[in-house]
Amino acid sequence: MCRHLAYLGPEQSVGDLLVRGENSLLHQSFAPRDMRGGGTINADGFGVGWWGVEGFSRYRSDQPLWSDSALRETLPGIRSGAVVAAVRSATVGMPVQRTACAPFSDEVWAFSHNGVVGGWPESLGELAADMPVTDLLQLEAPTDSAALWALLRGALAEQDPEKAMISLVRAVHAVAPDSRLNLLLGNGRELWATTWYHSLSVLVDDERAIVTSEPYDDNPAWQSIPDRHFVSARPGHLTVTPLEIGSS
Ligand code: GLN
C-alpha cells in the first residue's frame, strides 16, 4: 500500500524531506519495511504538496519517485514548513496516472489515503449517491482514493477535520468492512490521520510534527500509532484517540 509523509515545522527543502534518513520516503518507494500484504513497492507515481507564501502548490507524477527528475532538479530548491507527500502502489484494477496520486487537494486541504476500499466501486455507490453530481463529474481519477477525497472534501465544508474524518471512516466501514483506511489530512497548520490496518508513526516536539507511514530514521522519539486510532498533530501538540467504530 502507498506510503505517506507529512511535515510541519521550521522551513526546509521539500526535496530533502523526501530523501531524509535511511528509510526516507524515497527508500520506502522501492524498499518499504511494513506493507502488511498490500503490495511490494510503491512505484506507481508520487505526489508532494507544500504551503508557502503563495498558498498551496503541488507536484505529482506517474513516474516512480526514484526516476522522476523533479526529485533532484526541482524539489530541492523549494522551501516550506508544511508538506504532505505520498508514493503510490496502485491497487489492482485502478489506473496508473498522475491525477490518481496523492496529495489530493483544493485551496485549503491536502489529503492522502493509504489503503483500499473493499468492493470498490459498487460498495461506495450509496455514499456517492449523496454527493453533488458536479463533484462526481470532477473526480480526478477513477480510484477509491479520489472518491474518498471527494466525500471528505464535502464533509469538511460542514464539519471540523476530526468529525469529518471519523464520520468518513465509519460510513465507509459500514458499507465496505474489508477496507483499509489510513487517511492523512493537512491544512498547512495542523495534521490529522487515521490508522485502519496500515502502519503509522509520529514524531512531535515543540518545533515540529511529522506523521508518516514508516519512520524515516532510527530516532527513538518516533511513536508508533496503534491500529484504529485517530491522530491530531502540530508542533508541541499530539493527541491519539481510539476510533470507536464497531469491528466486523
Ligand atoms: N487504493 C489506492 C490507489 O490505488 C491507494 C493505494 C495504496 O494505498 N497502495 O490509489
Task: Describe the structure using short key phrases.
248 residues; alpha+beta; Glutamine Phosphoribosylpyrophosphate, subunit 1, domain 1; 7-stranded antiparallel sheet; 6-stranded antiparallel sheet; 7 helices; globular; binds glutamine
The profile of the biggest β sheet is:
7 strands, antiparallel
Q: pLDDT below 50 for ≥5 consecutive residues: which ranges?
A: none
Work out the oligomeric state of the chains in this entry: single chain
Strand order of the largest sheet: 3-2-4-1-10-9-11
Radius of gyration: 16 Å
What is the overall pLDDT average? 95
The class by helix and strand makeup works out as alpha+beta
Q: Determine the N-to-C terminus distance.
A: 22 Å
User: Roughly what percent helix?
Assistant: 10-25%
Q: Would you list the SSEs in sequence order as H and E? A: EHHEEHEEEHHHHEEEEEEE
Secondary-structure blueprint:
Blueprint: E1 3-13, H1 14-19, H2 25-30, E2 46-52, E3 55-61, H3 70-73, E4 79-87, E5 104-105, E6 110-116, H4 125-129, H5 133-137, H6 144-156, H7 161-175, E7 180-186, E8 191-195, E9 201-204, E10 209-212, E11 223-224, E12 229-234, E13 237-242
Antiparallel strand pairs: 1-4, 1-10, 2-3, 2-4, 5-6, 6-7, 7-8, 8-12, 9-10, 9-11, 12-13
Helix pairs in contact: 6-7
Bound molecules: glutamine.
